[in-house]
Specification:
Radius of gyration: 21 Å
Strand order of the largest sheet: 1-2-5-6-9-10-13
Number of helices: 0
Largest sheet: 7 strands, antiparallel
Structural class: mainly beta
Helix content: under 10%
Strand content: over 45%
Distance between the termini: 45 Å
Number of strands: 13
Length: 157
Amino acid sequence: RNAGRSSRDGVEASLDWRLSSAWQLSLAYTWSRNRFDEYTQDGVDYAGNTVPGLPRHQGFAELAWAHGIWSARVNVVAYDHYEADDANTQRANGVALSNLRVAASLPLSRLRIESYAGIDNLFDREYYDNLRINASFGRYYEPGPGRTVHAGIKLIY
């Protein structure tokens, strides 16, 4: 559905800090306020309600290490709760997810081969990966994957 008018205000900040030649810290934060200013649907006035699907607070933190051919990084992505419908009667809980990745990168002529392995959702948190806004019959929430292990090889030119 199309809303009559909405306001979307916010602030974002980030910091990348090289702690040493091998270590780097990255931080990011977003605060947003997303409201319906004018919105009436089927005789119901939603003005003043929060726009669904958008968390007020979002954060990211990552610690990365690299030395020689090896690198590793661990990060946390966090989301505040957010509304699932225009009436703001359904809500998806906030979550913080941690991820880990290690890699080795080798030069090969004009190419570089990188092998990597990682674990997403390191602590196997339950969360909603997708939200169907204003879904019929209360089917708003789609669960996210549990702990996931992945590995691969990339050729980089």
